[in-house]
Write a structure and sequence with these properties.
Largest sheet: 5 strands, mixed
Number of strands: 20
Structural class: alpha/beta
Number of helices: 17
Distance between the termini: 40 Å
Strand content: 15-25%
């Protein structure tokens, strides 16, 4: 279980979750912690005692976990006196004895927080804030009613202040299949959305006297401001909420109220069209108008749109390998990884270019560093333009690391790979190599969801993810046990040819 890798799309949003100026957690350790410490020996027993508990899976060396720790502790102290009390706990997922537990709860990065309800019968991802006050507010809502009843206009006004999405159930009475389905969906999605219900639609912002229930109205601070649905099947309601709660064009800037939409944008598995420009440009309004028109015309084609300010989206620039002299630009990335780029464009070029993409007239863009003219270091350098020849079709046994220059784990792994490469330098059929995955596109044959990721390609063409220990001894031992000799590789190739014939 490679739990030390960080999901790549999450890296684009790190500055949205943790302040760039956040200080490392320091100071004296409290004598008695309000956060329960769990491990494999007591986890199930503690979970069985609590109808609602939040568990943080962490690693002691993780900087994000260290920054979260004092906020998590403070929140635990406050929530201990809540009615009902909310229990916060933690598990050191880096300990060998807890690895199986972390795997069971799909822990793929640190910190991972899970909301566990009904003695373990229900498990949800915690998607709330990471500072104490935000944690408290978020979790209080989770233990309260799934949907809040609105009886007065003042109550409605207070709940719908700010730039938030609200899902409103309007009913003639609080009973029946429609009401039950609404409350069931509210409970299921309460981690992500705010639900309210009322008997009187005119109490709501943008309400009117002609609106009659049962219906669900989604209030939003963007686009057409509200939209209704009368289909009360659970599947229809969930799809409606998921689709309509996103702006037609997400905004990547420094406004915290836009951050939840960005997280949803990057988490959705679909094609993404991303326009980057300087928001202070005199052409901003023209670009905004054209990208919104494109989103309208492409609605229903499973394409999400984003407009990013280059001042706030440097992480995205780093990930996609873009340069500021290409701005304004639009980059389109399919879920399968293929990308299309249109740099230095004018506002009225957006829609024609997207239509060319839809009609299959565009050539995919491949990001690659230059092939090294000299490549004589123990760990060889691979780029996107030669990865197939150098790794997959080389007829050699190649261990390849995908890394990011800023990744701490990758920096620690660097000298280990070099030691292994020096030890195996006389093995002519063995190569240890690395590729900067932030400066080169990763081919579809490899699945890189975090850094570092290592693959082993045998001389016979077998490609497997290396998920062993990250020591020179373990890597050397793995290569020796799994490599093919040139003769074996040729034999395998011949046998494959015979089978094909």
């Amino acid at each position: 279980m490679a739990i030390s890798r960080v999901p790549i799309y999450a890296l684009l949003l790190l500055l949205l979750v943790f302040s760039a100026t956040a200080e490392e957690a320091t100071g004296d350790v409290a004598e008695e912690s309000a956060v329960l410490t769990l491990d494999s020996s007591n986890f199930n027993e503690v979970i069985s005692k609590h109808p609602f508990i939040v568990v943080e899976f962490y690693a002691p060396w993780c900087g994000h976990c260290q920054r979260l720790a004092p906020e998590y502790e403070k929140a635990a102290s406050i929530l201990a006196s809540n009615d009902p009390p909310v229990v916060l706990a933690k598990v050191d997922a880096n300990e060998e004895k807890n690895r199986e537990l972390a795997s069971k709860y799909d822990v793929s990065g640190f910190p991972t927080l899970k909301i566990i309800k009904n003695q373990g019968a229900s498990v949800q991802e915690y998607k709330g804030p990471r500072e104490a006050d935000g944690i408290v507010e978020y979790l209080k809502k989770q233990v309260g009613p799934a949907s809040v009843e609105i009886k007065t206009a003042d109550e409605a006004a207070k709940l719908t202040e700010g730039k938030k999405v609200f899902i409103v159930g309007i009913f003639p009475e609080y009973s029946g299949n429609e009401y039950d389905t609404f409350m069931s969906v509210a409970d299921k999605l309460r981690s992500d959305y705010d639900f309210i219900h009322t008997l009187d639609a005119k109490l709501l912002p943008r309400g009117d006297t002609t609106t009659k229930g049962p219906l669900v109205r989604l209030l939003k601070p963007f686009d057409e401001l509200f939209v209704d649905i009368k289909d009360f099947t659970a599947e229809a309601l969930e799809t409606f909420i998921e689709t309509e709660s996103m702006p037609s064009v997400a905004t990547f800037d420094s406004d915290p109220s836009n951050h939840p939409y960005l997280i949803k944008f990057f988490n959705k598995e679909n094609t993404k069209a991303m326009l980057f420009l300087n928001f202070s440009s005199d052409k901003f309004e023209a670009f905004k108008s054209n990208i919104n028109e494109a989103a309208k015309q492409f609605k229903g084609n499973d394409v999400s749109f984003l407009m990013g300010d280059i001042e706030a989206s440097q992480g995205a620039f780093q990930y996609f390998g873009l340069k500021e002299d290409q701005v304004p630009l639009i980059v389109l990335q399919q879920h399968d990884g293929d990308k299309y780029l249109n740099p230095n464009l004018e506002p009225d070029q957006i829609l024609p270019w997207l239509k060319d993409y839809k009609e299959g007239k565009l050539k995919a863009y491949k990001k690659s560093e230059a092939i090294p003219e000299v490549n004589d270091e123990p760990v060889k350098v691979v780029v996107a333009d030669n990865i197939h020849d150098f790794v997959l079709n080389s007829g050699k046994n190649v261990l390849l690391e995908f890394y990011a220059p800023w990744c701490g784990h990758c920096k620690k792994l660097g000298p280990i790979l070099e030691e292994a490469a020096v030890t195996l330098k006389n093995e002519e059929d063995v190569v240890i190599a690395k590729m900067d995955a932030t400066a080169n596109d990763v081919p579809k044959e490899f699945e890189v969801t975090g850094y570092p990721t290592m693959y082993f390609s045998s001389a016979s063409g077998k490609l497997v993810l290396y998920d062993g220990d990250r020591t020179a001894e373990a890597i050397i031992d793995y290569i020796k046990k799994n490599k093919d000799s040139p003769a074996t590789a040729d034999s395998s190739s011949s046998e494959a040819t015979k089978d094909e014939l």
